[in-house]
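Q: A reviewer asked whether we had any structural model of the full assembly, not just the individual parts. We don't, so I'm hoping you can provide one. Inputs are below.
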Amino acid sequence: MIDMLLEIVDLHVSYGNIEVLHGINLKVAQGEIVTILGANGAGKSTTLLTISGLVRAAKGAIYFDKTPLHKLHAHKVVKEGIAQVPEGRRVFGTLTVQENLNLGAFVSRDSARVKRTREWIHQLFPILAERRHQLAGTLSGGEQQMLAIGRALMSEPRILLLDEPSLGLAPLLVKTIFQTLRQINETGVTVLLVEQNARAALKLANRGYVLELGKIVLEDEAKALISNPEVQQAYLGGIA
Amino acid sequence: MEQFLQQLTNGLAVGSIYALIALGYTMVYGVLKLINFAHSELVTLGAYLGLTLLTSFALTDRMGPLLGILLLAVMVMGLIALVGAMLDRVAYRPLRQSPRLSAVVSALGASIFLQNTIMLIYGARFLNYPHDILPKMTIHMMGIDVPLVRILILFVSLVMMGGLFFFIQKTRIGTAIRAAAIDQGAAKLMGIDVNRVVLLVFLVGPALGGAAGLMLGLYYGQINFTMGWSYGLKAFTAAILGGIGNIPGAMLGGLLLGVIEAMGATYISFAWKDAIAFLVLILILIVRPTGLLGERVAEKV
Ligand SMILES: Nc1ncnc2c1ncn2[C@@H]1O[C@H](COP(=O)(O)OP(=O)(O)OP(=O)(O)O)[C@@H](O)[C@H]1O
Ligand SMILES: [Mg+2]
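A: Here is a predicted structure for the entire assembly that you could use as a starting point for your response.
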């Protein structure tokens, strides 16, 4: 059996007394790209936020390389090697691009490494180098998305969690961003991708999960999911 | 001209004290979106602790006026910082997840509690700072004689503000504080311990407020347990004037308010000094509702 990098076991999450995740099981192996598909309100963001510790689990467990994440505070989760590109990007609008990137490396103390990582990110997204002194809030939506990804990479994560990175972007830009995600994955970073753009996500991913109303209803190889009639009907607009 | 320059230096000195107090309001507001009404009482406490330490250790007699007051300021700032951290622990932290109104009520309660405690310990009478601590000398500059204490207050305040500005703008921890003020959740995703950011803000803000209290004692010579109320209100006004939550804004707002007030008192009417200050605030808020430096960039969604 392959060693799992991330393992979610019977995860229940509630907001107040309303349970929105009803026992989720999900695994991501080292080096994989895994996608979570699902309609609005299915619980995709909640799943990612719980991994990162911003939302607490009511029941169940999350293991990252055998470390129980569900017991850690959010700021400690980052140190374990988990970075998230949150829904809606959430860049620090009144800080500069450079300051945003540096904050991504808040947990790393090795300044030479931080510098190297920043140079790599500047190669991935040259626009971030060009705009380094500009306030993040004045970037375009696509540039902000690149900044959010770059910022997450600054902590040199072992796994990158992305919550709808294609949201609100032009198709061409989505393509560029997904190509970059593949490039990032090829350097050894595992990727867990939440998407509504199911077609693009399944083309990129190795495996996928389908989440409906807080439950996993399907899990399979990405190729199989693309040709699955139910998935086509619900998430790919009916046409293969 | 001479009167103008006198009032300008006076306004800058008083304004720099407002600015130091305003920083405490604005930093806490920035991170927690909470107005710490008890901040004004920390200023009062700073003035009283300063007097107690000054008289009980005779610092200025032993070490000379400048070094003595410097040591005094360090002690007062350290102690008030601790009180500030305790205040957060007891009055605000338990209510972090509660509706914002609960924290506001708690802030008012803490303010009244502290004010009464100070009164019970020190009494309701005015107390005097010894008037021979700082040499009564003046310094001749720009054609006028400026009292030494005024220059010292302005100089020390500016140094502290410069230090804070550098810390907030240029250091790793300072940037983390700004990030937490913008989006606590995103800050946590960066690995920032937001609880520690809050603690830091409740150490630094009160320390500056304590220093301001000490300066008020030294400048005016008289202190009273209600003094924090009026200075706190002015400083709060200054924070809003500069744009609440904005650190350079608080500095600018404080200095500006001090000067406007001093000029209004001299050239318009002393009795209307406070009214003029508030009138200016209202006018500026009509033109710029976010304050002078508040939120220059709208966040894109
Ligand atoms: N902070 C919150 N408080 C209360 N309920 C919440 C909160 N956040 C999410 N929910 C609810 O939890 C459920 C799952 O939300 P979640 O944001 O995880 O869905 P999602 O799959 O990410 O949806 P979308 O595709 O629209 O982003 C929804 O019913 C939502 O209304
Ligand atoms: Mg979502």
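A: Points you may want to mention in the reply: The pocket of magnesium ion (ligand 2) is lined by residues A 44-45, 87, 163 (CB under 6 Å). The longest helix of chain B spans residues 2-32.
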